Amino acid sequence: MRILVVGSGGREHALAWKIQSSPLCDALYCAPGNAGIAEDATCVPISATDIDGLVGFAEAEAIDLVVVGPEAPLVAGLVDRLRAAGIRAFGPSAAAARLEGSKSFLKELCARHAIPTARFARFTDAEAARAYVRAQGAPIVVKADGLAAGKGVVVAATVEEAEDAVTAMLEEGRFGAAGAEVVIEECLEGPEASFFALVDGHTALPLASAQDYKRARDGDLGPNTGGMGAVSPTPRLTAAMEARVLQEIIEPTVAALEATGTPFVGVLYAGLMLTADGPKLLEYNVRFGDPECQVLMARMRSDIVPALVAATEGRLNDVWVDWHDAPAVVVVMAANGYPDAPEAGTQIKGLDAAAASAKVFHAGTKQDSQGRVLAAGGRVLGITASGATTGEARAAAYRAVDAVDWPGGWCRRDIGADIA
Ligand code: AMP
Ligand code: GLY
Question: Is the Cβ atom of 188 under 6 angstroms away from ligand 1?
């Protein structure tokens, strides 16, 4: 098969690395890719949001399967356009991608189908939203309706903070159109966990759990980021809890979308709060997580390509995905200044030495004309290792981190430290 991966982050490097190991893969392209992905795929300089460019390339190169990494092109309808052109694509239609692209859409769907989630109300009027916040009291959560690059959620400790978030979104246009409506939610408490499933429109095939580390600093302090590390599996989700998540959250969602004629095909990533009343859905992402994908691909024993193809053909009942028992840990190395103003262009050395104890996925790198690897993004590397225990995987990942010679970068030192 001729396969195209869309995206340029660590998630797409992990996907490309896994896909190129498949005997079914004859040629692998990545648009636009990065310096690390170039070792596993032919990178083509087409942006992940250039829908015309991607469809044109897939047609010209007779691509048999397109695997879409990030959410923006999914929400913008890339998969609809590829399917209309007769090209097989793994990922949801724009209509199904609203699970991630619109918090209001998600919350209304949960309400209609009794899917456990935080109580909520929706507002476009700032005065009404602030009055609701005052009536509910704090803590309370304010969310921009649309995609806001992971920055559209404010967990407010005080009424004032929540009112400010409402004002910023509805009156000051902080997130543009994405913040023209807000969802205000009850603040849930409990440990968080993520669960991933492949979906073929009708059937959900459970993959695995993960735990991510969203804050910039050790001890879960500092600003929110795209994710500074992840562990899979997470002991927070027992097998019994996973069964509940599948039955109470994921399966009703898949059935609801199928019933409305907008079936979901792709990866469903459930962000969960494990409350005293059981697992509740915080959000869906309609794609693999980044960096969670890196640990999932490290753990997946079976060939991923038959599963991706089966998902696009409504045949997930026929496939089986098998896992290594060994847990995996990914530590993200970010450029100095991330998440606010990452410094670009600093040179990264020691990658071969790091590769002795871990798999180094590239997230934001490029190669210059002399073959040097330079930082070209906020999150730059995803150092991924497996081990007999999470502790061993973590030790191997940090050994590799210490072998990287990059004064221009930093990482959290406590990824996975809360797990034995
Ligand atoms: P999201 O972008 O929806 O994943 O939200 C980002 C983070 O905000 C989540 O990982 C949670 O830590 C937190 N969060 C979102 N919704 C709630 C809620 N209803 N109660 C408490 N925390 C929340
Ligand atoms: N790591 C969080 C995400 O991919 O959304």
Answer: yes
